[in-house]
């Protein structure tokens, strides 16, 4: 008899530790190991049942979700059209739930119960943005659905009791038998080749019926893709950029309608229409930061969102996204220009002359510095060409000859003064000048100055 892992129990115990679940899946490659993991899960479940969750923690979770979503009473009064079991939810709470869809609401329901979990009911008319994005750094292909209700995608600074988005994970496989129920289960079965086709159909259908015309937006590698190769799935183009916001790591997605930061709390989505400027700061040889300035709602104060430790290899793709979407590049804004200049000067003092290889990751600021240095070098070269060694010579004849050459001007007298001087030049002086020109025409050779 083929022993299967008790995934419902294992996932209930280790809901917050996906790394442990992944490890169990890798190691449980024999019937004996599967039986051992099942016994361990059974023992832990009997010792620490979910019902014995500390009251303080339960109160905290309920308080966090109390202000989120739609009224639970109203949602539970409507008949369930579609219910999908065993869905991993990560925001607002990390746990496996049943997702229920009614004509007016989407809500999460704990297994074996009826009615929404407090703070996890959403009116279809309140959904303002919806996304379907790949979860990076996973060996198996998984995607997150992110639904932002109004007021949750870019909460005001210092806002309290702001609603939270709904984030849940689906694999690339098809739903198991018995996963789908409800009055629309038969229609849903026809589009259940994968979880993606099922949820795209179900969410799109309910949004349209509620008069909400938003679409589910996904990442398009033709519009943005990372330059960094994914080691775990090398044939697949990465559509994210890893980075940090403060001390929290996460991922940036540059989408057709804005920039999304996920997938840890707090999630942030900055629509293109709200972006005032994108700036590049803390520019180092390997990493850089970007600062996205967002306009405030209804004339409110603008707010800046900084994302740090982005790989320099992704600069070109990000800058191309900024230009393609006609976003203002505020890197050289006066309030940051001095700070950037100081950082660059300090970096140059530490690193010395830059390698030619470093140009591969050069930012716009570095290119500007290189152009300025090239201009200075060109100016010095022109000064060296204008320099006449005879002006500092000790001989009697050399000084007067140099002065006459200076008066003649360069290039055969392009200005009017030079033409007048050319008419007064003695023929002997012309011969002398020709000899000097011939001597100067030998690159690398010493300059010889003829004396009278």
TrEMBL record:
Q: What domain of life does the UniProt record list for this protein's source?
A: Eukaryota
Q: Care to name a GO molecular-function term for this sequence?
A: histone binding
Give the InterPro entries listed for this entry: PH-like_dom_sf, RTT106/SPT16-like_middle_dom, RTT106/SSRP1_HistChap/FACT
> Which residue ranges are recorded for the region named Disordered?
47-77, 365-452
For this protein, the record's SUPFAM superfamilies field holds: PH domain-like (SSF50729)
Looking up Gene3D superfamilies in the UniProt record yields:
Pleckstrin-homology domain (PH domain)/Phosphotyrosine-binding domain (PTB)
Q: Where is the Histone chaperone RTT106/FACT complex subunit SPT16-like middle domain?
A: 238-332
Give any Pfam family that matches: Rttp106-like_middle
Biased composition annotated in UniProt, kind: Acidic residues? 376-395, 402-439
Task performed by this protein:
Histones H3 and H4 chaperone involved in the nucleosome formation and heterochromatin silencing. Required for the deposition of H3K56ac-carrying H3-H4 complex onto newly-replicated DNA. Plays a role in the transcriptional regulation of the cell-cycle dependent histone genes by creating a repressive structure at the core histone gene promoter.
- Family assignment from sequence similarity: Belongs to the RTT106 family.
Q: Whom does it interact with, and what assembly results?
A: Interacts with histones H3 and H4.
Mind telling me what this protein is named?
Answer: Histone chaperone RTT106/FACT complex subunit SPT16-like middle domain-containing protein
